[in-house]
Amino acid sequence: MLASAIPDTVMGTNCWVLATGRGQECIVVDPGFDVLDRLRAELLEHRLRPAAVVLTHGHADHVWSVTPVCRSGAAGSGGVPALVHGDDRYRLRDPLADLSAPLRAMLEQQFGPAARWEEPDDVRDLVADQVLEIAGLSLRVQHAPGHTEGSTVLSLDEAPDVLSGALAGAERVVMTTTSTVLAGDVLFAGSIGRCDLPGGDPAAMARSLRDVVLPMPDDRLVLPGHGPVTTIGRERAVNPFLPR
Predict the structure, then answer these.
(1) Which of 89, 118, 154, 209 yields a CA-CA distance of 20 to 30 A from 81?
(2) In angstroms, rounded to a whole number, what is the distance separating the alpha carbons of residues 87 and 160?
(3) What's the CATH code of the domain at 161?
């Protein structure tokens, strides 16, 4: 499996690209601010074609570029589908709506007013416990609320063997793993996602960490929404926010 990380320069959000190999269809995950040019270059370099865009949740820094990425795909006149949990579907109407006034003003100044936002043409629900078969990859969807109502994590029973983008250089971590989880803003290296933003729920986050994250095997690679990759085993050992 080929995996590439493209972090944005505004919020440090990781946009992930996954494919079975070069020259194949791919899945784009969480295309946020300021990633389009580098994403296009990455797709061109590896001759990849987006088959779908998966959103781990609906915050602006994870969805801002979803519509142009979807429309760049080849599946029909509207391009490829965007997939998000139904509880976060409403956020795609205006991703900036829940932000503080100063942050919203800063982003609108840099990227244009929210009135220019366009929802993807084809939005589909991620459903808990479904297995997505996209671009030759199988992803198990798990609902993990707490950061937002519709936060999800997606697991694959394989680990990448081709690393690209900002993920290049992470071989020492990746080589110890046999499976992968796209963790969004549920789990980070040494931390977890915030629960004090609109839609956040500390009790729900605690349940998600206990019931979704902790049962995962130690040798699972964590591709987080922000920051460096890690493993479930390392986070179980050192992350102070995981239940003991």
Answers:
(1) 209
(2) 30
(3) 3.60.15.10
